[in-house]
Design goal:
alpha/beta, five-stranded mixed sheet, single chain, globular, Metallo-beta-lactamase, Chain A
Length: about 210
Amino acid sequence: MFLDAYGAPKDVTPDNLHDYTYDLHGVMLLTSADYELFIPPRWHGTIYSTEELLDSYRKRFKPDSALLTFHAMEPYEPELICCERCVVEITALPAGQTLYSSSEIVVFLVKIYEVNTLITKELGTELNFFPSNHHYHVRIMNEGIDILYVDDKIYTGQVGSGVSYQHQCVQNLLKKLQPLGVKSLSGKPLPDQLLGMCRKVEPAAKKS
């Protein structure tokens, strides 16, 4: 998926290509090496992921290295990257194995100013993205997660197998992280049940 000019994720497909103005030199996040990325025409930006996923992806799909740049990230190590209109901090977080093969997958934490956004394309065998024995755990426990992005294809019938498990994973993740909000990668509405599981912000007390 892409990060747009302001660091928000956008799942670009042939169907929505003309609805999305993407930066030709922009940022793409690779969460799995099992599926070939849709690369828009003339796009020649940078694909970010862990070294393991990038190596697997290049061996499997043999992308044109003359057009694309691949940037390997160390898990749990934040990096600053430039989007078109802002600088964001991104961190690759191991997420276990995909439900459809033994391949590893990752999720990404994107910090835009003071907002922590967790971006998931697929949820697999591991929902503990912030292990308690790692220094990153302390930071996340202090700051919290503000927005969780999920792939709404699991709610629209576009994904065949493993849908009920994916639904349960999303609910478990919401209970665990208690973000302020949950959004879909497509921008379409999510089930009201998910919105109701987000953390409620108590209104400020009125001064007497």
